[in-house]
Amino acid sequence: MRYVSTRGRAPVLGFDDVLLTGLAADGGLYVPETWPQLSTADITALSGLDYPTLAARIMAPFVAGSVLAQDLPALLAKAYSGFSHTAVAPLVQLNANDWLVELFHGPTLAFKDYALQVVGHMFERVIAARGTRMTIVGATSGDTGSAAIEACRARANIDVFILHPAGRTSEVQRRQMTTVDAPNVHNVAIAGTFDDCQDLVKAMFADTALRQDLNLSAVNSINWARIMAQIVYYFWSAVQIGAPNRPVAFAVPTGNFGNVFAGYSASRMGLPVAKFIVGSNRNDILTRYFETGSMTVEGVSPSLSPSMDIQVSSNFERLLFEAYGRDGAAVTRLMDQLKQSGRYAVADAPHHAITAQFVGRRLDDAGTKAIMAAVHGATGALIDPHTAVGLHAGRAAGLDPAIPRLTLATAHPAKFPDAVFAATGIRPALPPQLADLFERTERFTPLANDLDAVKRFVRARVTA
Ligand SMILES: *Cc1c(COP(=O)(O)O)cnc(C)c1O
């Protein structure tokens, strides 16, 4: 498979280069040159497969031509072997219409493990084949950092540096990063905000010498490999409740639009999906877009679902590229407008194409607590605040009740114990493999918000 940039002016690359590159040279995001197609018979044949086997069927066309193509099934079996539920992504039925797809059985209890565990193994294979090494540098406000650390901790020839804002992540989130004892994992607590951390990372990538000397790479959701691995659970869950013979709807708690774009990708590959329902918290730029056709940046304010506290959703660019008939110049114009004025309007035809498949719903913190309490009251189940936003969005979207709704449960409730306690009066326990998290030794280096100090630290610590 070859990959093209959403802005149309970067080199066309194969999978391995897309995996290592992240952002395209023209500032765009990579997407596959064509969408692999699954026939009705192909989709029917997925039913009954175990998760890693189904994953190999879905991902095989995307990695065709890669050095890891031959070993993909073994690589996936390894990547998912550490998950704590034998189904990997079990479905739970809440009532006649609502199912949860539990995506929190990986090592760090959020859906990001489902892709990053795979990506960690893929990095290792591709750099081994090239006889090189790499340095992952990332900023995190919580979930991405720990998922990236868990994905790279045991991988040869990879160092991972994660910058988090000192004192500004939850204690569970910080401990999930800082208690990992591996020589190639380096946690840095920056005296500053998440935005300061992100600016430091961007500045490191802009330093060409540093970038080349250390082979810097990124693990945020602009990396196509993460989207690809997330396509799997859309097919996996839909076939369990009747696809391809009946269409389903997916409700997705959304931040950067990576997860729901993976669902869209599944639909382009042939999965019948009635609607994608995008859930936002009070940071509702996407819901406002679906309602008005215009993407307008506003400030961000903290909510009970912090992983969705976003100002702009970078992966929306991939959907624009499709809606504009793969016109990279048109996407470039919109992104330039966004940069200059904090706003762009989507033309009528592409906007209608988008709203035919997507709808957005928002929920504030009080509503989020009310949903968590209602689910607990009705079923005894505890859900996390992100999942609550998604579940509400699905119910509020006004779809035909004959269409089953699958809500992606993106985090384990124990990852957000304060919000769950505030809503239900119950403090969810960490699962057994993390039960001693609060007794483990933390390791991190506090650094000033100072680019030179961070660069010196990274250069000194890379395990050559
Ligand atoms: C990252 C994250 C999201 C948002 O996912 P996107 O792919 O950025 O839209 C939602 N919920 C949880 C728990 C997350 O960690």
What does this structure look like?
It is built from 19 helices and 16 strands. It has about 475 residues and is an alpha/beta fold. The chain has a domain at about 90-105 and about 225-425: Rossmann fold (3-Layer(aba) Sandwich). The strands form four sheets. It has a six-stranded mixed β-sheet with strand order 4-5-15-10-11-14, with helices on both faces. Helix 5 (about 110-130) packs across helix 10 and helix 10 crosses helix 11 (about 260-270). The mean pLDDT is about 95. Pyridoxal-5'-phosphate binds near residues 256 and 410.
CATH architecture of the domain at 91-107 and 224-424: 3-Layer(aba) Sandwich
Strand adjacency order, main sheet: 4-5-15-10-11-14
Report the total helices: 19
Total number of strands: 16
Q: Mean of the pLDDT scores?
A: 95
Q: Which small compounds were modeled alongside the protein?
A: pyridoxal-5'-phosphate
Task: State the CATH class of the domain at 91-107 and 224-424.
Answer: Alpha Beta
**Rg value:** 21 Å
Instruction: Write down the CATH topology of the domain at 91-107 and 224-424.
Output: Rossmann fold
Q: Pick out the low-confidence regions.
A: none
Helix content: 40-55%
- CA(first)-CA(last) distance: 32 Å
